[in-house]
Structure formats: structure tokens, C-alpha cells
Automatic annotation (TrEMBL):
This is Uncharacterized protein LOC109483889. Residues 718-740, 763-782 are annotated as: Disordered. PANTHER family: GIY-YIG DOMAIN-CONTAINING PROTEIN (PTHR21301:SF11), REVERSE TRANSCRIPTASE (PTHR21301). Residues 309-581 form the Reverse transcriptase domain. Residues 689-771 form the GIY-YIG domain. SUPFAM superfamilies: DNA/RNA polymerases. It comes from Branchiostoma belcheri. InterPro entries: DNA/RNA_pol_sf, GIY-YIG_endonuc, HTH_animal, RT_dom. The gene is LOC109483889. Residues 726-735 have a biased composition (Polar residues).
Length: 794
């Protein structure tokens, strides 16, 4: 009984601490004229009179809350006094003192925890309230119209014969990452994310039921935000998308949007592929052959329990879509050549390449020459002092990925794996088994372009997850050999993938450059020397001072356009604040001189003002930290992660509901200009598409069927001819013909999400040939949302 009273005392002290903090927070809000979210009053009535009524009401509600909190605090104090008096008379003096100290500590701990949370909450409320202040809507700094036009003129590069209209130019200048406000609510994506969240918290729990109920209510009573582009700009987007004479691409570097004649783009791609030293034309599609090879390797690994069944399912090649080739224009070079890219996502080897990459990744960077990022470059080079007879020089490997020798790299990696004592912590596979998978990844570098199939003769494909790691590990071997075989190696040699910074005797630059190019026939370096005592590397400009030490500032290549995500893009505010945090973090951590830092800040204020960023966003308190605080314990890890489509006012509300269940939430734009206009890769025919929800219709009646498949759609459709299929049974019973047209309702590569979408479409269409409601059991609470078939932009 005494222990129970002690626990009750502790609980009361914690409650007292929380409500005392709550009182302090509420009084602080009243003093600073800040309204807590929970008592905000909303109305559709506009005008100053309505604003005054709302202000008076909110102030009255705030006063009522203060009174309620004070009453609760008074009650807690009375209860604490009673327990305290009881325990003082029943416990020995030494035990009472110990208990008193313990509950006092609990009170202080709860007070400090609540205080920290309430401070952050108050800061955020102040920031949000400031956004409504007209003064705070001003740009960060005043910028002239001439400077705005000069900057924006670099954002679009028209190399086509097409003349751009005012509206076409306006919408292209928004940038390919610009998110357009959706015209319809993407109900399908919200339901899919909600069901994923319920999966993490327990789909049949009371908590999941409450979450579904709350979120469905929010979705039914949503209000769509106004469009962030004009009607004319929307029509211009449609015109650009339908124009088959041009192709729209991001520049290889610098964020510019490039428009090219499609015929010129195709000619440049053909020129690249006709290089027989790099590419070879194949007679037929090798996908099935490579799929069989991968399966023969994976099955024994699964049978021997060297990989788990889940890993086997992930790696097993169900997709038959080949990798696809495209090019990005190098606008900074004469004649605008293309950088070849092979898109491997969704191909048969993609997951295996990711699997192997995760095994090999921890081996990268074990040398003293490896650089993780620009910050490490500054840290390393700031310790260097150059003598008068020494120079800064940078070396760059020409076309590293396509130059990496595959067989030699495999041998190097196998030897590294053999010596890696921590390999068994990452996988049960032996070094030989890992390299067998790696060899398959590196020797199946094929792709499709314009309906034809090609193979890469040598090197690693740009676009494969394992390619950067293979290139890095080969370069670690290469630099070790190069540095140990030169009589007077550089004083400093630091490398970020194919970009090297070095300090060596000025008289040895040419001999050392020649030496580098003699190590391996595939690997050739270009060099760049100091200019005006400065040398750029990555995004850092290193400048030699009079005492031989270096100062550092931000470097921007001539191709840099100063284009950042526009502030009116329909994306979460956190994404936009992230742009500011990233740029300020770079300025704070890379620049070493005060004058250079001030210059950089002035530049950032100017270019961000041009992008529409406001003064309050730049000055927001508590928003400059780039790295979040580490989690205090494993208990605070989220139960899972879900991604919501972003619709202003709707996504924020649903995010709060889901986060309250312990599931982490991320947001993604519904539609970007890139998604609408950029399509350089070969289109996949509908029947060859993998990972879809599809719709079949009988040619002779209204009978319908909705299904889903991970494999190519043509394979799944052929299975409907089997006698056990409800579609085949319908055709045989009524002597009907199957519909020739199969409609793809949704594309979804993820297994769980595809099952949810199938269930939603079945619920929406009520197809007569389906025997059940799909493999995912969709709760009836969604009926009011899905039965209208208005599922948003699918």
C-alpha cells in the first residue's frame, strides 16, 4: 500500500510539472499575442470585422484555458500535500527523505523535458504566425528587374528550332523540380499510405480503426488549395508535352532545362552507341538469358540458407523490363555532347546490384586518401602549408565508369573481401559467392534504345547501384600503385571518386601526370593547374595565402545557374527550409574568411530572393540546424515509414494523425514539371509493363475483372486462359470472347501497396468476374471515398 502511494506521489509530481509548464507556455502565448493551434478559430467569412471577432474569441478561449490550467495545478498541489503528509507520518525519516528526493528528481526531469518541448513549440508557433505578417512576406533582399532577368535567362537553354511562347518560357523557368498544385485529391495514394501505416501499428487494432476514421473524415472534408500556375501556363505545359519535334531534358550539370530537336538528340545518341570500343549491338533481347543465370545462382544460396527467403524474393528476377539508355546534354561543352546514362531501376539485376553494393560499401574509404565530402576536403587541406616551389593541382579521370576494367576490378574486390574480417557481419556469403554475383552485375550491362538492344563492352554502367562502389575500390588500388611507384609522390593526394586534389613540386607536375597515365591503359587523367593562386575542387575554391596556407570559399562552375526550388512550388515547407539550411550550412562550414562568408551570404540572399524566398524564411529561428539530434534510445525508433502525397492543408493534418501512432511520415510532390515533360527513355509497351493493377472487359457483355501482377502484364493475361481462371470460365460458359483491350489502372512495383490499390479498384468498380475483394482486406470505412471512382490523378 505504501509503495502504491509513493507511485501516486511521483505521478502527481509529474502531472504538476507538465501543467506548470503548460501554464507558462500559455501565458507566454498571451503575452506575445501568439495563438496556439488548438484554439484557433477558422471561418470562411472575410473582412476586418470578422478578424476582430476571431481575435476576441481566441483571446477569450486563451483566458479560459489559463483558468482551467490554474485550477488543475491547485488540485494537484492539494493532492500532493495529502500524500506528502501521509507518507511523512508512516515512513521512517531516512526512507522519507530518500523518497522525497526521488520524487523531486522526477518532478525536475519532467519539468525540463516539457520545457524543452514547449519552447520548440512556441518558436514554431511564432514562425508560423509571422508568415501572416505582411512585412515578413517581403523578399530577403531587394533585387533589380535586370538582375532577375539575367539570372532567369540561364535557367532555360533552347537549342531547338522551336520558338518558345511567353507562357512556355514562364513555365519552363520554374524548373523541372517545380511541383504543380494537384487539381484533384490523390485519394488512392492517401488510402495506400494509410493502410501501410495501419500495417505497422496493427491493422485490426483499435488504434488503426481510430486512425482510419480520423483520416477519412479529413479527406472527405478537405479543401483543395488554389493553383500555383495560371491557366495559360497549364495549357503551355500540354502543348510542350504534345510537341513530338522536341525533347526536354535537364542539363548534365547546373540545373538548367534544355530543349533540343528530337532528331538532333537521336543523332547524338546514335553517335555514342556507334562507338564500337564502348558499345556492341545485340541481335536479340538477352533479358530471359540473364534472368536464368541469376536464378541459377540464387536458388542454391537460398537452399543453403546463405540468403533469407525475403532476400531471395527481393532478388528473384520477376521483372522483364530491360535497362534503358538516354543522354543528358553537356551544355558547357562545344556542340553539346551527351553524357550516356543507363536507367537500371526496375530491371532484373537492379535489386541484386543494390544487394551487392550494400555488402561492398563498408570497404570503401579505408585509405587515407579518400574524401567523403567537401567538408572533409576543407578539413584536410586546412592543415597543409605549401612551399614556394610547390603547387596545387587537380587530376580528373576521363569517363571513369566506362573505363573501369571489369575483370581486374573483380579480382581486386575479391582480394579485399578475403581480407575483410567484418564480412561475416554483413552476409553469410563467401568472397567467391559475392564476386560471382558482382561479376553477373558487371557483365550484364545491356540496355534498350529505340527498340534495339546494346551491350556495354567495358566498364560499369552509369546508373547501376554497384558502379560507384566498384569504381571507388578500383581507384583505391590504382592510387596505391601510382603513389608507391613514383620516386617523389605528392605531399598531398586526396580523392573524391574520380576527382583528385594534390600538392606536389611544381617541376614534377608533368612527369607525375605522365606517370599516372602510364599505370593502366584504360585510366587517363586530365589536369588543372592553379590560376591566380586558386584551384577549385568539388564545390570548394582553394586559394593560397602569402604564408603558404590555404583559405576556402564556395566554388560555382560556369555552368551553375543559381536556380533553386522556387518558394511557391507545391511542396512541404520543410523542403524549402531545407534549401536554406543546406546553403547556409555550406557557407558556415566551408568558408574560412569572414569577408568571403559575408559575400556568400549576400549572394545567397539575392538568388533566393529571385526564387521567391521571403525574409521570415531566411531569418526563421531554430531552423538552421542541418543534422537532427540523435535518438535517445532504440525505443524512440519509428514503427515504420510511410510517404504521403503532398496537398497543402490536407497532408499536414494527416501527417499529425499518423505520427501520433509512432509511424514516421514523409511527403512527396504529386506532380512535377519533370514528370510531365521529361521522357527520354524508350516507352514500355502496356503488355510488357511489370508491377501493375489492370482491368479486363468482356467483349460481348459488361463482365469485368480487376487484377494485379508483379510480372509482365502479357504473362498474367495469358494465365487467364487457364480453365481455373474465372475469366476463362466466363468465356466458356457464355461462349463470349475476351476483350482485346486491357487497361492499366495503376503502376506500382511494391507488393503491399499494389495489393491495396487492387482492393481499392475492386471496391470502386465492383467487377463481376472477381471471386473476392483482392488479396488486401480493405476496411469498409473507405467506401465513401472510393465508390465515387474519383480517385484523383492516377
Amino acid at each position: 500500500m505504501t509503495l502504491k502511494r509513493v507511485r501516486e506521489w511521483e505521478k502527481l509530481e509529474r502531472l504538476h510539472a507538465r501543467f506548470a509548464n503548460h501554464l507558462h507556455f500559455t501565458m507566454h502565448c498571451k503575452h506575445h499575442n501568439v495563438t496556439p493551434v488548438s484554439i484557433k478559430v477558422k471561418t470562411s467569412i472575410k473582412g476586418e470585422a470578422a478578424k476582430k471577432v476571431i481575435h476576441r474569441t481566441q483571446l477569450a478561449l486563451l483566458n479560459i484555458r489559463i483558468s482551467e490550467i490554474m485550477y488543475k495545478i491547485k488540485t494537484f498541489k492539494s493532492l500532493i500535500a495529502d500524500v506528502n503528509e501521509e507518507l511523512f507520518t508512516t515512513l521512517p525519516a531516512d526512507v522519507y527523505t530518500e523518497v522525497h528526493n526521488w520524487v523531486s528528481h522526477a518532478h525536475r526531469a519532467e519539468w525540463e523535458k516539457c520545457q524543452q518541448r514547449q519552447r520548440k513549440k512556441f518558436d514554431l508557433l511564432r514562425v508560423r504566425q509571422q508568415t501572416t505578417d505582411n512585412n515578413k512576406k517581403a523578399p530577403i533582399t531587394a533585387v533589380s528587374d535586370t538582375m532577375i532577368e539575367n539570372t532567369k535567362s540561364k535557367w532555360v537553354i533552347n537549342k531547338s528550332d522551336k520558338g518558345l511562347s511567353t507562357h512556355e518560357l514562364s513555365v519552363l523557368r520554374k524548373g523541372l523540380n517545380y511541383a504543380i498544385t494537384p487539381q484533384k485529391l490523390p485519394i488512392m495514394e492517401f488510402i495506400t499510405a494509410l493502410e501501410k501505416a495501419c500495417k505497422f501499428i496493427g491493422p485490426d487494432t483499435e488504434e488503426a480503426a481510430h486512425l482510419r476514421s480520423d483520416c477519412v473524415h479529413l479527406l472527405k472534408h478537405r479543401k483543395m488549395p488554389p493553383s500555383n500556375i495560371t491557366k495559360e501556363e497549364r495549357l503551355a505545359l500540354d502543348d510542350l508535352r504534345k510537341d513530338s519535334s522536341i525533347i526536354i531534358l535537364p542539363a548534365d550539370k547546373g540545373r538548367a532545362t534544355v530543349i533540343m530537336n528530337k532528331s538532333e538528340y537521336q543523332d547524338k545518341c546514335s553517335d555514342l552507341l556507334n562507338d564500337s570500343t564502348t558499345y556492341c549491338r545485340l541481335k536479340k533481347d538477352p533479358t530471359n538469358n540473364y534472368s536464368d543465370k541469376l536464378t541459377k545462382i540464387l536458388r542454391p544460396l537460398k537452399d543453403q540458407e546463405l540468403i533469407t527467403y525475403e532476400q531471395y524474393r527481393t532478388l528473384y528476377p520477376t521483372s522483364t523490363e530491360p535497362p534503358k539508355f538516354y543522354g543528358l546534354p553537356k551544355v558547357h561543352k562545344p556542340d553539346c555532347p551527351l553524357r550516356p546514362i543507363v536507367a537500371t531501376r526496375g530491371s532484373i539485376m537492379y535489386q541484386t546490384a543494390r544487394f551487392v553494393a550494400n555488402i561492398l560499401a563498408p570497404m570503401v574509404g579505408k585509405t587515407q586518401h579518400h574524401l567523403k565530402n567537401s567538408g572533409e576536403l576543407v578539413e584536410r587541406m586546412s592543415q597543409v602549408t605549401l612551399d614556394d616551389d610547390e603547387s596545387l593541382v587537380s587530376f580528373d579521370v576521363s569517363a571513369l565508369f566506362t573505363s573501369v576494367p571489369v575483370e581486374e576490378s573483380i579480382v581486386i574486390i575479391r582480394d579485399r573481401l578475403t581480407c575483410d574480417s567484418s564480412l561475416n557481419e554483413r552476409t553469410k556469403l563467401s568472397p567467391l559467392q559475392v564476386t560471382e554475383l558482382l561479376r553477373l552485375c558487371l557483365t550484364t550491362t545491356y540496355f534498350k534504345y529505340e527498340g534495339k538492344f546494346y551491350s556495354q563492352v567495358e566498364g560499369a554502367a552509369m546508373g547501376s547501384p554497384v558502379s560507384p562502389i566498384v569504381a571507388n575500390l578500383f581507384m583505391e588500388w590504382f592510387e596505391s600503385r601510382a603513389l608507391t611507384t613514383f620516386p617523389n609522390p605528392p605531399k598531398v593526394w586526396v580523392r573524391y571518386v574520380d576527382d583528385v586534389g594534390a600538392v606536389l613540386k611544381s617541376s614534377l607536375i608533368e612527369p607525375f601526370h605522365h606517370h599516372l597515365n602510364s599505370i593502366h591503359p584504360n585510366i587517363k587523367f586530365t589536369k588543372e593547374l592553379e590560376e591566380n593562386r586558386s584551384l577549385p575542387m568539388l564545390d570548394v575554391l582553394m586559394t593560397r595565402k602569402d604564408d603558404g596556407r590555404l583559405k576556402f570559399s564556395v566554388f560555382r562552375k560556369p555552368t551553375h545557374t543559381d536556380q533553386y526550388l522556387l518558394f511557391d512550388s507545391h511542396q512541404p515547407m520543410e523542403h524549402k527550409m531545407g534549401v536554406i539550411r543546406t546553403l547556409r550550412h555550406r557557407a558556415d562550414h566551408l568558408i574560412t574568411e569572414v569577408d568571403d562568408k559575408n559575400t556568400e551570404y549576400d549572394h545567397l540572399k539575392t538568388v533566393l530572393s529571385i526564387a521567391g524566398y521571403t525574409r521570415w524564411a531566411w531569418q526563421s529561428p531554430g531552423r538552421t540546424k542541418l543534422i537532427p539530434h540523435p535518438r535517445s534510445s532504440t525505443d524512440s525508433r519509428p514503427k515504420g515509414h510511410v510517404t504521403l502525397p503532398y496537398v497543402a492543408g490536407v497532408t499536414e493534418a494527416i501527417t499529425r494523425k499518423i505520427r501520433n501512432t509512432g509511424v514516421a511520415v514523409h511527403s512527396t510532390p504529386c506532380t512535377t514539371i519533370r514528370r510531365l515533360l521529361v521522357a527520354p527513355k524508350d516507352k514500355t509497351e502496356p503488355e510488357d509493363t511489370c508491377g501493375v493493377v489492370y482491368h479486363l472487359t468482356c467483349e460481348d457483355c459488361e463482365a469485368q475483372y480487376v487484377g494485379e501482377t508483379e510480372r509482365a502484364l502479357r504473362k498474367r493475361i495469358s494465365e487467364h486462359k487457364r480453365e481455373s481462371s474465372p475469366v476463362a470460365q466466363h468465356m466458356q460458359t457464355y461462349k463470349h470472347q475476351p476483350g482485346k483491350k486491357v487497361t492499366i489502372l495503376d503502376r506500382e512495383s511494391r507488393w503491399f501497396e499494389r495489393g491495396v490499390k487492387e482492393a481499392v479498384h475492386i471496391r470502386s468498380r465492383s467487377p463481376s468476374l472477381n471471386r473476392d475483394q483482392g488479396r488486401h482486406r480493405l476496411p469498409p470505412i473507405y467506401n465513401s471515398l472510393v465508390q465515387s471512382r474519383d480517385l484523383g490523378d492516377l
